[in-house]
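How a chain folds remains the central question behind the approach discussed here. The record that follows shows the chain in one-letter code together with its fold in token form:
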Amino acid sequence: MEDTTFAIPATERQLAYARALALRNQVILPWQTQQDRRSLSVWIDAQSKLPAATQTDSRPSSKQVAFAEKIARFKRRAVPDECFRDRQLLSRWIDCNR
């Protein structure tokens, strides 16, 4: 008895969405998964339910840094270097030095 199920190729739209999810979640899109529409659909469903990895970025925004530097110039003091590496630390520094 032969296996009569054939892999249906994934659509371009499906592949584009899967690649965007892979970038968002910072995961690798397996080559074998890209070859079959059904397996790619299962992979997309699993990845779309995960929270975005880019939300875990703890670096301060450029506006936050600019505001802290403006406060530092006005108060004539320096912003500690570690504050430029963490959003929460810089936020606390801003709150304490307004």
Remarks:
- The radius of gyration is 23 Å.
- Residues 62-97 form one domain.
